[in-house]
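Usage

Read records sequentially. Each one opens with the input sequence:
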Amino acid sequence: MIGRTYAVHPDPADFSVHVVTRRDSGKVILRHRAAKGYETAFAGVHGDILVLADGNAFSSDPRPQHISFFDLRSGKKIRDIKDILGKDYEPGATALQDSVATTGHYYLTVAPVKDRRFGCVGRVNLATWSFETISDCDRMTDTIHYGSPGDAGHTWLTMRSEKPSDDADRVCQMGEAFYRNKRIRIGGKDNCRVWYTGLVADPAGGEPWQVWTERDPEVGPEGPVFASNGAELIRLGESNGLILYSCGGYVYWSQQLDGSSLVTADEVEFGYLRWRPGGPIELVWVVPKEGWPVTLNSCNEGILTVVTMDFESKQSRVRYLESEK
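and closes with the structure output:
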């Protein structure tokens, strides 16, 4: 993960340790080692405040995340999530839903201590250290997935069923967002086919553009990418079901490129495209055929960090996609 001033990356000699450095000088600010049985799965920066979340990004381990806050001017830990959430809530089990917005809020999934079967979205104000929930925390029929930063807000997918035992084809896939202190529905109030979500500010100052992919549960995660500001609906392309992320005024998604007009190389399998309101669709990264994106993405200060894995060598690669400053 990188921001405008700081970078957070694993120590090549010990992947259980993450190193925070200044981008201009390379100076090491701090070294963070995840607790035994955990790994650092999320890093987010706002100004000089760093959020580090340790969990297990790839398993259904139900243990809560370990989340810490650091002041990068001193390199010292200043808060622990337990002190902020108090007695009523604890963090969710995965950091894949987390984001730090440009408003200075850290968004995460939480669960009521009295019944961890329930889950909802909460946010921490990184200036006042206050906490609030922004989605329903008392519905056992809701599960939260695919949290993503939106311009000045946060988006997520709510899987809502009539009862916990409902089959997958009876579940409503609802896109939701929190923007300018209100909760909104992405993709239309009756749309139950939403999968990935994003939110992009309108450069002209109008209503934000909601961006989402739709999927048929019986077919798979692939589906069309749409954008709408409430008055206009645009079909942007076809997602291959791997990623959609909003960052720095753009929405990014991955799309199969074989046979498309964007590239002609036969060895290309898919690439990352981006769009912002009023602009063209751009191809910003062609992913090598042996590479595959891992859903460890983060947006910090307009820079999208994407991790890919080479299945043959088992080595991960990091790519930074930057919007204009």
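Summary fields computed downstream for this record:
- The chain is about 0% helix and 55% strand.
- The two ends are 17 Å apart (CA to CA).
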